Amino acid sequence: MNIYPKLILEALEKVRYPGTGKNLVEAGMVDDNIRIEGRRVSFSLLFEKPKDPFIRSVVKAAETAILTYISPDIDVKGNISVVTAQEARPEPDRLLPEVKNIIAIASGKGGVGKSTVAANLAVSLAAAGYRTGLLDADIYGPSQPKMFNVEDARPSMEKVGARELIQPVENYGVKMLSIGFFVSREDAIVWRGSMASNALKQLIGDANWGALDYLLLDLPPGTGDISLTLVQTLAITGAVVVSTPQEVALADARKGISMFQGDKVNVPVLGLIENMAWFTPAELPDNRYYIFGREGVARLAEEMNIPLLGQIPLVQSICESGDAGAPVACNPDTITGAAFRQLACNLVERVNHRNERLPATTKVKMK
């Protein structure tokens, strides 16, 4: 029997918190990050007070519900942790204290349009009035300078206090840095993992990002050490996983989700994005052709109980706009431009929901 977060939540809906009479899911007491490793299930329950008299009985009832309604073979006893407002995750010593939300944009494999999604999502957030930054963390294949039409830019150094900091390049209202600004576009970047990780740390810690509402990280595809370094270095608000509906891509998307939900990373997955969801020719705007399969990411989202943030169609103008350095999200009157604007709204809503569920001591306020 396969175990999914959705099954865990359905079991926890059978358990009521005596203080309010609501079930644990309805009361918002179940942390989003449910970790499943084989038969082992672990997650956190959120309580308002550290001396809540119902903690022990609720944890016991949650264990019993999972063993009863799913399978008695599940390893859950002793794996449910308790988080309270007074002892919740402390705000870490952040590298970027003026950045409210750091969002990792990831994909299990290359070729699914992750960088295109990241660029258009950043432009959409900026157009909505949010102070937005984008770090091109795809060291071996930096593409954001071209997508933002700033390939020839060379970031300057600026004195901030006693430090000389890299000044991000800005276009379309987005502050952006990429290793592509510091190497020749014709040369391959042949670096070991430690060199690449150190370069990224410099673009993060030695740059003048200033006050931002959102900093998007365009991660390399896969689950390599660069992604691991970034998510363990920064106070990541959450991750977004991009995939096409194709089964081959979905298999790798599962691995990406697993990386974020694993104990070593423990970053909440805010949602999934289905890119190239269908093909719509410009001359037939009402037609949809499901070239890579239909609703694959939507089914994965439902199966793993992760929100589907948006479905982006495959339209020729996306490729043309990216190559021309003018992200399609700059034009909200197009099908894809509108889709990216809606995607940005859905992400903001999801982040707000996530922040509201954190205990008061760790809550991040949006603008």
Structural class: alpha/beta
| Series of H and E elements | HEEHEEHEHEEEEHEHEHEHEHH
Distance between the termini: 44 Å
Major sheet, described briefly?
A: 8 strands, mixed
Number of strands: 13
Q: How would you describe the oligomerization state of the chains in this entry? A: single chain
Helix content range: 25-40%
Low-confidence stretches: 86-93, 360-367
Trace the largest sheet across and list its strands: 8-9-5-10-4-11-12-13
- Bin the strand percentage: 15-25%
Global outline: globular
Average pLDDT confidence is 86
Rg, Å, rounded = 21 Å
Number of helices: 10
Report what the structure shows.
It contains 10 helices and 13 strands. The radius of gyration is 21 Å and the shape is globular. With 367 residues, it is an alpha/beta fold. The N and C termini lie far apart (44 Å).
Q: In summary, what is this structure?
A:
The chain is of the alpha/beta class. The chain has helices at 5-12, 55-69, 114-127, 144-147, 193-205, 225-233, 247-261, 296-304, 316-324, 335-357; strands spanning 35-37, 40-47, 80-84, 99-107, 132-136, 157-160, 163-166, 169-171, 174-178, 212-218, 238-243, 269-279, 308-314.
Layout of helices and strands:
Layout: H1 5-12, E1 35-37, E2 40-47, H2 55-69, E3 80-84, E4 99-107, H3 114-127, E5 132-136, H4 144-147, E6 157-160, E7 163-166, E8 169-171, E9 174-178, H5 193-205, E10 212-218, H6 225-233, E11 238-243, H7 247-261, E12 269-279, H8 296-304, E13 308-314, H9 316-324, H10 335-357
Parallel strand pairs: 2-3, 4-10, 4-11, 5-9, 5-10, 11-12, 12-13
Antiparallel strand pairs: 1-2, 6-7, 8-9
